[in-house]
Amino acid sequence: MATRSTYYFDGLSFATAIALFTDQALTIKAADGYYSLGTISRRQVNGLLQAGVNCANCSDPLVLCYDATSVDDLCCTGCTPGANLTAFNSSIIGNFLGVCDIDPTEVYYHNGLGTYPAANDFVFTDSIGTTPLSNGWYHYISPSNKYRITNDTGYVADAISCESNLTAFSSSVFYTTSVGACSGVENQTYYHNGSGNDPVTSDVCYLSDGGSFLVDGYYKISSTQYIRITGGAGVVNNVGTFSLGTSFSASTTQTSGAFACATLIGQTYYHNGGSSLPVAANTCYTNQCKTIILSNGFYKISSNQYLEITGGAGIVSAVTTCPTVLNDYDSSQTATTSPNACFASLGTTYYHDGAAGANPAVNDTCYLDSAGVDTLPIGWYRANNIGGDIKYNVNDDGVVQSVILCV
Description:
The protein contains four helices and 33 strands. Mean pLDDT is about 85; it is low at about 60-65 and about 75-80. It has helices at about 70-75, 180, 255-260, 340, and strands spanning about 1-5, 10, 20, 35-40, 40-45, 50, 55, 60-65, 80, 85-90, 105-110, 125, 135-140, 145-150, 155-160, 165-170, 190, 205, 215-220, 225-230, 235-240, 245-250, 265-270, 285, 295-300, 305-310, 315-320, 325-330, 350, 365, 380-385, 390-395, 400-405. The chain has five domains: about 1-80, no CATH class; about 85-160, no CATH class; about 165-240, no CATH class; about 245-320, no CATH class; about 325-405, no CATH class. A hairpin with a 4-residue loop joins strand 14 and strand 15. About 35% of the residues are buried.
């Protein structure tokens, strides 16, 4: 003869479950044999449920029974109740926010030990336990509690005081990873049963109607924190902190260090290093969640420093000091031959990295602009500053190769 008992399955429904267990933690597998839920029977063999079959139309369907050897006994002979069901007064179905306002005018039955059902009990609409109560929220009095039925089995997932109001909180939609949640926007309103403004570990989170759990996943609840929901029942597994980058100010990307040093700082980027500014081997990003890398190029990061990113992975290859302040001097424009340079007209201002007030000297670098962005084109020039009237020639890098007095 089949017997009724309480079991637990590891899925959303008995029809799709992989195995049955005798404990809610799903650590102890139920004995091998035949099990039924509603009109479906499945056999567990070596701890695994086999394909389901529909019970024969030989009697009223049974809710949850077990028989070690016979599917016919299970579906047709009937269950021997493990305990008498207890009648109690309850409301009709409602939602979390409003069910406590519904009078308990119905009579239902539960298999628990108390006067009213508690979490993990089963509730039925009939005294012999053949029809489970439909999924949803219900209310009973003395004390005034609301309880939630799930899994299409009459299973009581929650039984809480009617005075336990939900607290609204702002969150992103769910993400499958904390990295994804970091970039989320807190534009959703959800609810939790905790005592604080935001949910904490072990609180239960619900959708806005209070009747459905938040699905498993990661939810952003502030610029620095997220909650992780697991287990399929809206329970907060943990509250985590995002791994955020360190912000720093820089210029836009430039094609050279000289251009970077001449550019204003006005952008905010992020890096994964331990200092305020990135150093070599740090990785730089455009967003605080460190999901978008900074493109290759040169970036000014202080009044006298720039960094270079290479390799396409946002990695800093070097941090370099900008050239010293350039000194202006009076010069001619370029001449094509050395003899002609001494006859060229002065009056053009150029810049070099040599001594202040002096003519450029050998190995000085000469520039068209004070920022040191563009070097002088290759050729001969005349200058007349401290050091006398000279002609000098530069190579294609703007570096002075020779200096000759004009006579």
